[in-house]
Structure formats: structure tokens, C-alpha cells
Amino acid sequence: MKKVFTILTGLALLCSCEIENHRESMFAEPVPCHVEAIYANIGRISVNEKYNTPEVSDVVDNVEAEYFNISVLTFDSIIGWDGERLEFYQGIGQGLISSEGIYCEESIPEVEQHIHEWAEEQNENSDPIWDVTWKSSTRLANYNFPYRLEGVTSFVITANKTFNGVEAGRDITDWFVIRQFSPELVFSYDDYAVHQGGTIVRTVSEWLAMKPLASPCLLIRLTEGAREAADDIAFTIIMTLTNGKVLTATTPMVSIVK
Fold first, then answer.
1. pTM, full prediction
2. What is the DSSP letter of 164?
3. Are 237 and 249 in contact (CB under 8 A)?
4. Rounded to an integer, what distance in angstroms lies between the CA atom of residue 64 and that of residue 253?
5. How many CB atoms lie within 10 A of CB 119?
6. Is 79 exposed, middle or buried (0-12, 13-18, 19+ CB in 10 A)?
7. Residues 115-142: pLDDT tens digits?
8. Of 5, 92, 70, 81, nearest to 249 (Cα)?
9. What are the pLDDT digits (tens) for 184-217?
10. Distance CA 209, CA 203 (A)
11. What is the pairing mode between strands 23-33 and 138-148?
12. Separation between Cα atoms, residue 172 and residue 165, nearest integer Å
């Protein structure tokens, strides 16, 4: 059974019985991990109209081209996965898969400093929470914030059959964009600069130009011009790391309908 990163729920600091201006404080715990393998799967994505964020359904056999997505996950080894089902999960602490990285003793101090600064910024910008059920001035939450120790120098997508006029096995990366990074921060492997990711849509080329450390999770979708129907198609992700390793992952076959 798959295991997810644990969310430590909020603590209540009991004060007076008066209604107060409550605020939630967040603390991020950096979780470094080597990239030893990648995983890719296909699902159906829609957009939450209220929050304008992607919502990913369970893995499917047939999916409309408009909602088609590939989720790509990087890890060293998965804890507690039964090998049968693994979904893409959104957001910090909302289900990013757990890996042996929780025991990794290596770290990148510059990256972890950015993570702590990001958490402080979230606290500064958080809105007060008015709730008569809370008798405290602060709610505390601690989130595991995963990051990877290796960078990505190349990222290529191919298909097992002709797709949009491109022969099987040829590079079709330009037919895709990255819809979401999770966690939302993207770090450069050369100078450890930080870039905002989240739900900012980027091409793969734009992402690689950042010289990124591998993201724990990427959500990739078809460009509007590439949304064609295809039967029994599978996609292969080929990722080259800064340490020279070349990792691959192939999705299950799926039918894309229009």
C-alpha cells in the first residue's frame, strides 16, 4: 500500500474564550533525496474552477485529449508501494510519495535555506483566520518539503507509435508542456537559485534552461496543437541527470479520444 508524506496537523494553543484574530503558521522540513528511478503514469486532469488548480483523477484507460496528462515522479526507492497503483498528488504535504530520501544524510544548505525562507514568506502573507471554534492566536503546521540532489540536463518524451506525424521512438517533447511542479519551487543545480513553479505553465525547454534539480513530481499535458486521438499509445520519458545517469519510464498504454 502506497505511503505518502505525513502532514503534521495543527496544534491549538489555548488562550482566552474571546474571538481572536487567528493565523496559521507553517514550518517546512526539507527532505532531500537522490534520484535513482523515475515513474510515469497517465491520468485525466481537470481544473478546479474555484482555485484554478489542477485536479487529477485516478489512472484511466481512455482519456479525452483535452484532459490527458502524464505524471512523472522521481525517487530513490518507494516505501510501501504495492507496485499496482500510484497516483499524482498535488501540493506540499498533500500526498507526495514517501521514499528512502527521508533517511538521506546529504543535503544542499542553499536549497534548504530557500525552503525555510519560502515558509516564512507564506506565514507573512497568510490571511488571518476568524473562527470562533479556535481559542488560539496561532495554528501551527509542519510540512515535509521534498527536493532532489541531482539536476536534470535532458528530458525527452517519445511514443510507441506515430503521434502527430512523428514516427515511433522519435522526440515529441515539443508536443507537451509542464502544467504543474510539485513542490512548487524549482532550484537550479549550478547556483541553487530558486524559481517559482507551481501551476505556471512552462515548456520543457524553459524548464531545462533553469538548470533544474529534478522535481519530485511533474504534471505534463499536451499542447493544444497536439491533442489528437490515438489508440493503444504509450509514452516513454528519458531523463538524463547531472551525474550522467540516464533513467527511463514508460507509461501504460491508453487510448486518447477527442
1. 0.76
2. T
3. yes
4. 14
5. 21
6. middle
7. 999 888 877 766 555 444 444 444 455 6
8. 70
9. 899 999 999 999 887 888 999 999 999 999 998 8
10. 10
11. parallel
12. 10
